[in-house]
TrEMBL record:
InterPro entries: Ig-like_fold (IPR013783). It comes from the Bacteria. Keywords: Signal. Residues 1-20 form the signal peptide. GO terms for biological process: carbohydrate metabolic process. This is Carboxypeptidase regulatory-like domain-containing protein.
Length: 242
């Protein structure tokens, strides 16, 4: 099993809810060199590369970052490999320094997506290459980096405060994203579109029944989606809440 350094743990935490770690993609299982990730604008995520055939000491795996992105880390924490990132962030490498690399090894590269990237976009020019100790190409492959969506937030209503049956619900999300709020029974409470300043507000149609409930927001834009954390609410009897 791969061991990632603290750098990778931080990158993964930043991208919770928006990062897809593919494990062993179909192309890799079929013998191809492949990597993929979904990363939100302004965030870092890990592209896991699989499908590296057994290579000898001195061999190098190179990932060239998609256009407009940067590689910021090579967090594989395992003996027999040395990771490095180019000064301009356009590429990064792992070099085999010990015995041969096994077929089941997965190589993580941390990639940063710019804040202006459009969610749902498939970023171009991500490529992979394996060369031997003499620099002779042994394999080439591709990597797919899709711009994801940062998770929306729920800022109102406040948890723990008795509420009216139809409280105003508001929060933040990516501008233009469609936001749907669902209750504890996964029923739609209300829906709206995020404004250009990144805020949204909606009010339930039918009122919530009195008692405990739970809300969660789901944001969707250009075919990608993300969810907020859940908040617990309490609706007062006889619509006497705030």
């Amino acid at each position: 099993m791969n061991r990632y350094s603290r750098t990778a743990a931080v990158a993964g935490a930043v991208a919770v809810g928006v990062l897809a770690l593919p494990g062993a993609p179909a192309a890799a299982r079929d013998g191809g060199l492949w990597g993929a990730a979904t990363i939100a604008p302004g965030r870092e995520g890990i592209v896991e590369v699989a499908g590296v055939q057994e290579v000898a000491e001195g061999a190098t795996l190179t990932l060239t970052a998609p256009r407009g992105t940067r590689v910021t880390g090579t967090p594989l924490d395992a003996s027999g490999y040395r990771g490095s990132v180019a000064a301009d962030g356009r590429s990064a490498t792992y070099t085999v320094t010990g015995g041969p690399a096994g077929r089941d090894r997965v190589f993580p590269f941390v990639v940063a997506v710019p804040a202006h990237a459009v969610p749902g976009t498939r970023l171009r020019d991500c490529s992979l290459r394996v060369t031997d100790a003499r620099g002779v190409p042994r394999a080439v492959g591709r990597c797919a980096v899709t711009v994801g969506l940062a998770g929306p937030t729920l800022t109102r209503p406040l948890s723990g405060v008795p509420l009216a049956a139809r409280p105003e619900i508001s929060g933040t999300a990516h501008p233009g994203a469609q936001v749907t709020v669902r209750d504890k029974d996964d029923q739609e409470a209300c829906a709206t579109t995020t404004t250009p300043d990144g805020t949204w507000t909606c009010t339930p149609g039918p009122g919530f029944p009195a008692g405990a409930n739970r809300l969660q927001a789901v944001a969707t834009l250009n075919g990608v989606s993300a969810t907020s954390e859940q908040i617990d609410i309490s609706v007062a009897q006889d619509d006497e809440g705030q």
